[in-house]
TrEMBL record:
It holds the Pfam family Gpr1_Fun34_YaaH. It is a multi-pass membrane protein. GO terms for molecular function: acetate transmembrane transporter activity. Residues 1-43 are annotated as: Disordered. This is GPR1/FUN34/yaaH family protein. One of its GO terms (cellular component) is plasma membrane. NCBIfam families: AceTr_1. It comes from Colletotrichum zoysiae. Keywords: Membrane, Transmembrane, Transmembrane helix. Belongs to the acetate uptake transporter (AceTr) (TC 2.A.96) family. Its main location: membrane. The chain crosses the membrane at residues 89-108, 120-139, 151-170, 182-202, 209-231, 243-266.
């Protein structure tokens, strides 16, 4: 008489190629419920309107780029961790602070003084974003840690620059002898951040449209605002004002793109009926994979 073996349905332990999918809050619950939620999240396949890939079926380097976790491209997934995704927090802090300062640069409702951005620069855009960057280190995201920590430092430095008590750009401060020189000094400060943002932009070329656009618009914002200060130092006030408007416009776009990426990182099946599209760049590996799958369906 033949003996029938009972199939073993126990899930295989995660391999070193499986990734903690930060973009799904369900993955970070503890206990049996968390394991079931993680399995359900992994079961969804990545597409242009979904955010979670089945990493169990991926080879090394096939994990798709996704702005919601501030991860720009192909990378080797790290071991499963119990940390939440810190990227939405950092992106939200960056977005709100940039939004307020961009409103001032656009002189919305006639507001010209940037002092309202100082408390945000110290508290939310500075401290909170810096802490989010530190947690990106804990979850193994080098790009996210570098970006969020650096821009957190930028906002703290900018808050110091705008604080009257420091007297850095005060009329009786270090530039009192030739006060117009402070415009060029601020221009140098912003030019440095333009260069740094360009370096980060180069790391997003194989990611998604929204993620690339975030750093592209931010890069242009730094460039135009730096040129605004150079023009002011030269006495070209009309050109300076136009450049400030351009910088404020691109800063506003960067703020909303950062909020978009933050939303993408916050959404999952437990809290939303839909998931915002990530729009993979056509030359990225994920974009090629999606086109190939679409072509195969057309042939069939």
């Amino acid at each position: 008489m033949a003996t029938h073996e009972t199939p073993n349905h126990t899930a295989a332990p995660p391999t070193d190629l499986e990734k903690d999918v930060h973009t799904s809050g369900a993955d970070h619950y503890s206990g049996a419920n968390g394991q079931n939620a993680a399995a359900a999240a992994h079961a969804r396949h990545a597409g242009p309107f979904t955010r979670v890939a089945d990493y169990r079926n991926m080879t090394e380097g096939e994990a798709q780029a996704f702005g919601g976790s501030l991860q720009p491209g192909l990378w080797k997934p790290y071991e499963h961790r119990k940390f939440a995704n810190p990227a939405p927090l950092g992106l939200s802090a960056f977005a709100l602070t940039t939004f307020v300062l961009s409103c001032v640069n656009l002189q919305a409702r006639g507001v010209k003084a940037p002092n309202i951005a100082v408390p945000l620069a110290f508290g939310y855009g500075g401290l909170v974003q810096l802490l989010a960057g530190m947690w990106e280190m804990a979850v193994g995201n080098t790009f996210g840690a570098t970006a969020l920590s650096s821009y957190g430092g930028f906002w703290i430095a900018y808050g110091i620059l705008l604080t009257p008590a420091w007297g850095i750009i005060a009329t009786d401060g270090p530039y009192a002898a030739n006060y117009s020189d402070h415009y060029s000094a601020v221009g140098f400060f912003l030019t440095g951040w333009f260069i740094f943002t360009t370096l980060l932009l180069l790391c997003t070329l194989r990611s998604t449209v929204v993620f690339f656009s975030l750093f592209f618009t931010l890069d242009l914002a730094f460039l135009f605002l730096a040129c605004e200060n150079y023009a002011a130092n030269n006495g070209a006030l009309t050109a300076s004002r136009n450049l400030q408007i351009a910088g404020g416009t691109f800063g506003m776009l960067a703020a909303f793109l950062a909020w978009y990426c933050a939303l993408a990182g916050l959404q999952d099946d437990s809290n939303s009926f839909f998931q915002v599209p990530v729009f993979h760049l056509p030359w990225s590996d994920k974009g090629k994979e999606l086109r190939k799958a679409k072509s195969n369906r057309t042939v069939d």
